[in-house]
Amino acid sequence: MEPDLDATTLRAWAATIDEGPFSALCWGERIAFDNPDSLTLLGAMAAWTERVELVTTVIVPQLHDPVMCAKALATGDMLSGGRLTVGIGVGGRHEDYRAVGADPKTQTMREMADRVGIMRRVWAGEKITESVLPVGPSPVQHGGPRLLVGTIGPKTVRSAAAWADGLAGITMDLDVAGQNELFDVARHAWAEAGKPAPHLATSFWFALGDKDQAREQVRTHLLRYMNWLPADLVEAIAPTTGWAGDEDELAAVLRSFEAVGTDEIHLIPTSTDIDQLRRAAAVVSDLWSPSCRQHL
């Protein structure tokens, strides 16, 4: 979501992440913005990496034809050798709906679930119409890629237990206790649905360095990224949104999320400076253990 991206920058980040110690590479979706298209980027990331899981956080199915979206994601799963996980959410910006001619009235959990249902049918090889063959290719992963619901709302988490395999959330202020409360909602909803324990992921913006300088980096990023909100509102939340500090402080934050059972943390960059990525990699490498996987 940083400005002036090009293929060289994206490929360098992908290669560095794929080298380790990270286990996943993630990116999100916006339409009325200058970020790369998520589904096109999936093809590039499948080609530019060999090891890491690829996680779309999140795809908004109401912005796509569900059959074409299912075909694109199945293609990405095939090209990556079954390394795809798909975050699904309703999205938070009406401007993205309007940009593609989608009705903002479809920004509902029911509409999202209905479209996920169509995608699941496509991945199962079911004919959606009277075609000679079903829509392919078949995904490498049986039944399609793992699906995570992208939300911070308990109601959406509960409703997603019927179709999702877990949660891909975000913590604005790094409230570990608050995040664990949402995880508990998911744990209980999945148990009531008779499903295995959900995959529990969260994310936050980060900047490494001198605290004041790093905080300014986060602020600059948020003012650009949150351009659909009044600037004075973004200024008000910028001092407490995301994380800024040094390596030891980042390690402490990651440990605090590990302590409440977080399966995965997605670190959201606020700069194209690849040194930020390498410094974060050093922190993750020091913390790596089979029982706690921190991801970017």
TrEMBL record:
Keywords: Flavoprotein, FMN, Monooxygenase, Oxidoreductase. Residues 9-247 form the Luciferase-like domain. Pfam families: Bac_luciferase. It comes from Mycolicibacterium confluentis. GO terms for biological process: alkanesulfonate catabolic process. The keyword Flavoprotein applies. GO terms for molecular function: alkanesulfonate monooxygenase activity. InterPro entries: Luciferase-like_dom, Luciferase-like_sf, SsuD_RutA_monooxygenase. CDD domains: Tetrahydromethanopterin_reductase. It comes from the Bacteria. This is Luciferase.
